[in-house]
Design goal:
carboxylic ester hydrolase activity; 13-stranded mixed β-sheet; signal; Carboxylesterase_B_AS; alpha/beta; AChE-related_enzymes; Rossmann fold; 17 helices; 569 residues
Length: 569
C-alpha cells in the first residue's frame, strides 16, 4: 500500500475529529441550550457531524390557521436527538393513486412519518470541527410535495454527508401544507392565508438569529428546494425587491419554480366551502372558521383526501406576488446568483397508467386546441426514448411542466443581469427507483444531491455522480458568484464555434461537439449520461439543442403570464 504525505494530510483532520469529538454536542440559541448527537458516516474515522434534530423554530403546535409565533424560552436543555412529526399531510384519492404517491414520495423505502399539527421544527447538521473565520456557509432546504405534503424528517434529506464532505451546515425545516398551511378561508385576512410560506420565513429568521451557535455564518445562506420547494424558493426570490436585503445570498431551484406555468392558478375557496359543508359547519360568515378550527385534525385530513381537495397559496403580494414572470423581467426581484434545473424524465411518475396520447392532449390542452396537432407530431412513437403512448405522455409532461419553464426561467433571470446557472439531470439507478422503469423521474436527483441513496447495489457512476453533484451544490453555496463549475447561462462569444468531442474534458467537465452551436450556447450542464459519455460529472451541452420542442408551448405560457413575462428569444 502506498502511503504518502498527501494521504496523511487528508486523514489528519478526520483523525483529529475522531479523537476530540463530543458525543453530546450542545449549542446555545436564543431560546436556551440544545443538546444534539455526534455521528459518523460509513467508512469515516469517527464521529464528525453534529446533528441537532427537532428544534422548534416557532411555538408548536401553532394555533390552527394562525401565523407562526416566537417560541418560549426552554426551562431546561432541549433534547434535540430525534426528528419531530411531519405536519399533517394530504395525499389525494383514488386509493391507488394515493398509495403510489406515498410509495414514491413519502419516505420511500422507510416507514411513513408520524403526522401532527405539532410540527414547527427544524434540523441542523453541522461539522463538528471549528469553522474558522466568520463561520461556514449554510444551506437551507425546503422540501417539495405540491404544497400538500412533505416533511423535513426523512432519511433522504439527511444533511450529514453535506456537512461531512463539503464542510457546510445544512438546515432542513418543516412547514404547514394543504388546508393547514394554505386554508383559503374568506374569513382570514389575505396576509394570514399563506401560513406555510410564513413558516418558511420564520425558520429563515431563526437561522439569522441562531445559526452562529452551530458554526454558521448568517450572511452566507443559500436557500434550495425541489418541486414545491423550488416554487417556494421562487416565491421568496420574487417577493424581495431588487435593493432589499433578503435573509439569503443565493438560491437553487430543483424541478420547480413559480414564474412560468401552463395553467393559471385556481382559487381554493370552493375547496374550503366543500370542507366546511362536509364538516357540517353552520355555513355562515364568521362561524365556519371557528368550526373548522375546532374540528378533529384526523377528520379534516380524511375529508380533504377523500374529496381530493387542493389548497393553493394566494397572491398576497407579500409572500407571493401576483405576476412573478413580469416582475422578474422588470428586474425588481432579489439580485442574487441562482442555479436551476430539471430532470430528463420528470413526467414518468405523473403519467403512470396513461397510454392514450390523443385523449391526454385533448384534456391537457383543451384551452389551446389549435396547438394539439403540432404537439402530437413532436412526440412520434418510435422516436428516441418514445416507444409507446406512456413514453410520449411522459415526455409532454416533462417538457410543458418542467423543462421548458426551467429554460424560460433561466433565460429570463439571466436577461436581467442575474448570474444564472442551469443543469439537466439525466441519470437513473436501480437503487433509487421506487417503481421499475421510472428513469430520471421527478425528485430522483435528491438522493444524489444529499448522498442518501441506498448503499446496496451502488454503482461506480452513481457514487461519482453523487459526489460531483453534491460538490457542485456546495461550491455554489460557498462562492455563489463563482458558480457550480460550468458556464453561466448566456455567456460566451456569439458566432464562435466551440470545438470539442464527447471524450474531451476540461477540469472534469465534458464538452460535447456540435457544428452549429456557438460558444454562448454552451451553458447547460447535463448531469449523468449524454451521447457517448456515461460519467460521474457534467457534460456541457447547448441549451437550444436540448430545448428544441419548447417553442411549441410558448403561446400557452404567454396566455398565462402575458407578453410582459416572456423573455426575448
Amino acid at each position: 500500500m502506498r502511503f504518502d504525505s498527501s494521504t496523511l494530510s487528508l486523514a489528519l483532520p478526520a483523525l483529529a475529529s475522531a479523537l476530540s469529538y463530543n458525543p453530546t454536542p450542545t449549542a446555545t440559541i436564543d431560546a436556551g441550550v440544545v443538546v444534539g448527537t455526534a455521528t459518523a458516516l460509513p467508512n469515516g474515522l469517527g464521529p464528525s457531524v453534529n446533528q441537532f434534530l427537532g428544534i422548534p423554530f416557532a411555538q408548536s403546535p401553532p394555533e390552527r390557521f394562525s401565523p407562526p409565533s416566537r417560541v418560549s424560552a426552554f426551562s431546561k436543555p432541549l433534547n434535540a436527538t430525534a426528528f419531530k412529526p411531519a405536519c399533517v399531510q394530504q395525499f389525494r384519492y383514488p386509493l391507488a393513486s394515493q398509495q403510489f404517491a406515498k410509495a414514491v414520495f413519502n419516505n420511500p423505502g422507510g416507514q411513513p412519518p408520524v403526522e401532527s399539527e405539532d410540527c414547527l421544527y427544524l434540523n441542523v447538521y453541522a461539522p463538528s470541527g471549528s469553522p474558522g473565520g466568520n463561520g461556514r456557509a449554510v444551506m437551507f432546504w425546503i422540501y417539495g410535495g405540491s404544497l400538500q405534503f412533505g416533511t423535513a424528517g426523512i432519511s433522504t434529506y439527511d444533511g450529514s454527508a453535506f456537512a461531512e464532505y463539503e464542510d457546510v451546515i445544512v438546515v432542513t425545516t418543516n412547514y404547514r401544507t394543504n388546508v393547514f398551511g394554505f386554508p383559503a378561508s374568506p374569513e382570514l385576512p389575505v396576509g394570514a392565508q399563506n401560513l406555510g410560506f410564513l413558516d418558511q420565513r420564520f425558520a429563515l429568521d431563526w437561522v439569522q438569529r441562531n445559526i452562529h451557535a452551530f458554526g454558521g455564518d448568517p450572511t452566507k445562506v443559500t436557500i434550495f428546494g425541489e418541486s414545491a420547494g423550488g416554487f417556494s424558493v421562487d416565491a421568496l426570490l420574487t417577493s424581495y425587491p431588487k435593493n432589499s436585503k433578503p435573509p439569503f445570498r443565493a438560491a437553487i431551484l430543483q424541478s420547480g419554480q413559480y414564474s412560468y406555468r401552463a395553467a393559471p392558478p385556481t382559487s381554493s375557496v370552493p375547496a374550503w366551502n366543500n370542507l366546511t359543508a362536509s364538516l357540517g359547519c353552520p355555513g355562515t360568515y364568521g362561524s365556519n372558521l371557528t368550526c373548522v378550527r375546532a374540528a378533529n385534525a384526523t377528520e379534516v385530513k380524511r375529508i380533504v383526501e377523500v374529496n381530493s381537495l387542493i389548497f393553493n397559496p394566494v397572491a398576497d403580494n407579500a409572500t407571493l406576488v401576483a405576476n412573478p414572470a413580469a416582475r422578474r423581467l422588470s428586474g425588481n426581484i432579489s439580485h442574487i446568483p441562482v442555479l436551476t434545473g430539471s430532470n430528463s424524465q420528470e413526467g414518468r411518475v405523473f403519467a403512470v397508467g396513461q397510454t392514450n396520447l390523443t385523449a391526454f392532449l385533448r384534456t391537457t390542452f383543451s384551452a389551446a386546441p389549435a396547438l394539439i396537432p403540432a404537439i402530437a407530431a413532436a412526440y412520434p412513437i418510435g422516436s428516441p426514448g418514445i416507444t409507446n403512448g406512456y413514453d410520449a405522455i411522459s415526455a409532454v409532461i416533462t417538457d410543458v411542466t418542467f423543462q421548458c419553464p426551467a429554460a424560460l426561467w433561466a433565460n429570463a433571470t439571466a436577461s436581467i443581469g442575474i448570474p444564472t446557472w442551469r443543469y439537466y439531470f439525466n441519470a437513473s439507478f436501480a437503487n433509487t427507483q421506487a417503481y421499475p422503469q421510472l428513469g430520471a423521474y421527478h425528485a430522483s436527483e435528491i438522493p444524489l444531491v444529499f448522498r442518501t441513496y441506498p448503499r446496496p447495489n451502488t454503482t461506480t457512476q452513481e457514487f461519482a455522480l453523487s459526489s460531483y453533484m453534491q460538490g457542485a451544490w456546495a461550491r455554489f453555496a460557498k462562492n455563489p458568484l463563482g458558480g457550480p463549475g460550468w458556464n453561466p447561462v448566456g455567456t460566451g462569444q456569439a458566432g464562435t464555434v466551440l470545438s470539442g468531442a464527447y471524450d474531451s474534458a476540461v477540469d472534469g467537465v465534458y464538452y460535447g461537439s456540435s457544428g452549429n452551436a456557438t460558444l454562448g450556447d454552451w451553458d447547460l450542464a447535463v448531469l449523468g449520461d449524454v451521447g457517448r459519455v456515461k460519467g460521474g460529472g457534467a457534460t456541457i451541452y447547448p441549451q437550444r439543442q436540448l430545448d428544441y420542442r419548447c417553442n411549441l408551448y410558448n403561446p400557452i405560457y404567454q396566455a398565462v403570464v402575458g407578453a410582459a413575462g416572456i423573455p426575448p428569444a
